[in-house]
Every structure is written in C-alpha cells, then in structure tokens.
Design a protein that fits this description.
Strand 1 (4-11), helix 1 (16-26) and strand 2 (33-39) form a beta-alpha-beta unit. Helix 5 (118-132) packs antiparallel against helix 6 (157-166). This protein starts with a strand and ends with a helix. The protein has a four-stranded parallel beta sheet, with helices on both faces. The protein has a four-stranded parallel beta sheet with strand order 6-5-7-8, with helices on both faces. The protein has helices at 16-26, 45-56, 70-82, 92-102, 118-132, 157-166, 184-188, 202-215, 227-243, 256-270; strands at residues 4-11, 33-39, 61-66, 87-89, 147-151, 171-175, 194-199, 248-250. By secondary structure, the chain is α/β, with parallel strands linked by helices. Helix content is 45%, strand content 16%. It contains ten helices and eight strands. The protein folds into two domains: 4-114, Rossmann fold (3-Layer(aba) Sandwich); 118-270, Rossmann fold (3-Layer(aba) Sandwich). The longest helix is centred in the last third of the chain and has 17 residues, at 227-243. The protein is elongated.
Length: 272
C-alpha cells in the first residue's frame, strides 16, 4: 500500500508564496501521494501549538512553512523536531543569505510583498485595463496596451491576459475570425505595441471546445467543434501572424503560467 503524506503548509501571511513553492516542489515527484492542509496568518506560538497538535494526530506528517519572524520560526522548528515531524522553512535561510549579501537587516514583516507601493497600484491599473480590453473590447485605445494577444477561440487568451495583468502588464486580447475582424488600427500599424499570436494544435483545440460545449450544455454549435473548420481557423491565424511578422507562442498542452512566461520573454526581448 502506498504511503500518503499529510502536508501542512503554515504561513504568517496569505500563504500564496508557500502554495506556489509547494506546487513546484510536488511536480518533481510523480509518485507522491498527499493530503494538503493550509494554515494562513499563523503569527503566535499558541496558533503554532494548535496546528502541531493536529499534525501529531496523523501519520506521515510534513510541515512546510514561510514565517519571517525568526523567533516564531525557530519555535515551530524546535517543537516540530521534538514531535518527530519533519519541518522545512522555505524562506529562512534565503532571507539570512540575502541579508548578508546586501549588508542589510531584513524587516521580518509578514506580507511584505503586499505593500501598497507604486508597483501595487500599477498592478491594479493593469488588471482594470485588461478586464476592459478582454475579448476584443476597447479596441480604440489598444495602443496603450503593453501586450496584445491574438488567437482563435479557446487559445487561453483571457486567462493568460489576466495572469499578465497580475504581473503588472496591461494586456489586450482579440479573437481572430478573419483578417477583416482585426482592428484597423492594428492592421495600419502592426508594431503598435508588443503583439503576440497564440497558436495550438487543431486536434487539441477541438477537445477543449468539446469540453466547453459540454459544460454549457450547448449541442447546436457543430461547426465550432468541427476539426475541418478548426484547421482552417488555425491556418488563417498562422498566415496572419506570418504576414504581419508577429511572434507566436504555441499553447498546446501549456499551462497559463508557462504561456505567460513565454509571452513575457518575447516582450523583454522586444524591449531590450
């Protein structure tokens, strides 16, 4: 019988950083069976003790934590070791090494990344812009966009745009139906900003569209999931991308994060 681990993610803030680190970590182990428990805003010894009491009741417990308060982090590590529970501090050693490298004392403030500074407001502005320019909307001022994503239906344009917005990029996404469906401003000036085409395999796109139709219980749009029609759509988009020399990202079997990373790489090259 395969062992199932009880993984406890303990954070003194929202837990977002720890969650992402754990996602990257578990992806490295294909035969890792686990149940995950998340505890956010754990900032007192009493809270830590209550969580440890729960951990002790289960077999194969593992603790991962991001706690910037050095005293509290040591308290958790010590109590975990005493209870024979493996504890892994994700940020502790990194903060210490950075402190030495920069010759600066770390603030050790929880939620330090959520300070309401210029970057925060820039991100909020980018999110608002992106929402207003989703799916071909707001095309009159597309020149204000940092990035314009083009692609046929269901090529991850919207989720990629939202992800980019959370990284501070004003993103605009426009569906491709034909060349005539593109904004005149974009055809007149193809290099108005960083324009990127999203492409994918037709067979994969057909599966995605079928799932979409099934979710919304739509049975009449047979042409929408026709492989022949999808092949034509994909070819039309590729021809447009070649015609206007727009770089492309193949989103086939890529996660939104991977697609966004490729888009940002192109953006950085264009602005280097």
């Amino acid at each position: 019988m395969e062992k199932t681990y009880q993984v406890y993610l303990i954070s003194d803030s929202t837990g977002e950083t720890l969650d992402r680190i754990f996602l990257a970590l578990k992806a490295q182990f294909s035969n890792f069976h686990y149940k995950m428990y998340q505890y956010s805003f754990a900032r007192t010894e009493n809270q830590i003790l209550k969580i440890l009491d729960i951990c002790k009741k289960n077999k194969n417990s593992i603790i991962l934590y991001t706690i910037v308060d050095t005293k509290l982090a040591k308290f958790l590590s010590m109590k975990g070791e005493k209870a024979n529970i493996p504890c892994f501090g994700v940020l502790g050693d990194l903060i210490l090494r950075f402190s030495k490298l920069l010759h600066q004392q770390a603030s050790h403030l929880p939620s330090g990344q959520h300070v309401l500074d210029d970057n925060y407001y820039k991100r909020i502005e980018a999110i608002q812009f992106t929402i207003n320019h989703d799916d071909g909307n707001g095309i009159n001022d597309i020149g204000k966009a940092d990035i314009i994503l083009l692609g046929v239906s269901r090529t991850s344009k919207t989720p990629t745009s939202i992800y980019l917005a959370n990284r501070g990029f004003k993103a605009c996404n426009i569906p491709i139906i034909s060349e005539n469906s593109l904004p005149k401003k974009l055809i007149k000036d193809p290099k108005i900003t960083c324009v990127i085409g999203l492409i994918t395999e037709a067979s994969r796109l057909m599966d995605i569209r079928k799932n979409r139709m099934s979710l919304i219980k739509e049975k009449d749009s047979t042409s929408y999931i026709s492989l022949d029609k999808i092949n034509k759509e994909v070819e039309i988009s590729k021809k447009l991308f070649r015609k206007y020399s727009w770089p492309t990202v193949d989103v086939t079997r890529k996660s939104v994060e991977e697609t966004a990373a490729s888009v940002i790489k192109i953006y950085n090259i264009m602005h280097s």
